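Batch job 17 of 40 flagged for manual review because the log was empty.
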Amino acid sequence: MSTNDRTSNDKMIERLAALVPEVPEHLRVIALAPVGVEAAEERLERFMVTMGECCEQRLDRGDRVRRRDRTLLRLTNGRRAVAYHASGALEFHGGIEPMADLFEEMSDTRHLTSLVKKAAGRLDAQYWVGRDERLVFERLWRIKAAAADARAKMVSPVLCRAIGAFRHMIGDVPVLGAASMAVQLSGSGAFDVVRMYPRATTNETIDEVEVLSPMEAAARVMQHADRLMAGGAERFADVAEPTGFEFGYYSASKRQAQRVLAPAYTATFRSGGKGEGDESLNHFIVVGAGSRDYLELCQTGRQPFGAQRRAS
């Protein structure tokens, strides 16, 4: 590796580490409640009782279809719900057509934030997280639509949906990954889509690990990142721009089983796209943040916990 290569990597490591100013010295590794077909379907039943109360009609009855990795509940008027067997993640789709029930005006951020927070408050969100845990508002998203007439004159965009993203917090530590809860509302305030992704924790502490410093974790990230450029003329640090670096627990995708919540760092990058109109790529890298690495277990969860722990 040349001096220039080391310098570009060192600079990237320093940039990443600066994005995480402070981390705890130690953090618990928390056991998660077992999830399977029956547990996921029980969660779905409870979820649909709540959604029925929010929609002011009974939604817990419908055609249930059990697939390999999820259970679907088909309801009237295009509504449907799904529970994922691996994670217990839940989704509700209200059956509203994409361009139906639009907002009458392009409401400001404060108003829309208040709207999604109020809607989330009706979902009994605290039921889905454990003691000393909570779901906190993180970000507002908007879905807009615009069009042009036959003379290519643009018309004013319209606001189709407002989406509130919420993050699962265990104490002061966030659970990283996809938004833990997302509430998507139509113009009348109806629930268009609700995603409830928090994994059910237990009171059992599997381990307490020493947390790697942001510099140590950033170095691990760059080791993984350089593998993306294997055989290429350029190094990752020379072509990528960091867009985020966070510390917390890590929750894998809704289709992946997971036995514990363990500390991790997540890094996001954008590469390419230097000129106007150029295409760019987004990269997402997760590394374990503990002195003992449980990340592989978090990502796969394919073996019984005891077997994986003995093998480490």
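Reviewer: the log was empty due to a logging misconfiguration, but the result itself is present. The radius of gyration is 22 Å. Unflagging and moving on to job 18.
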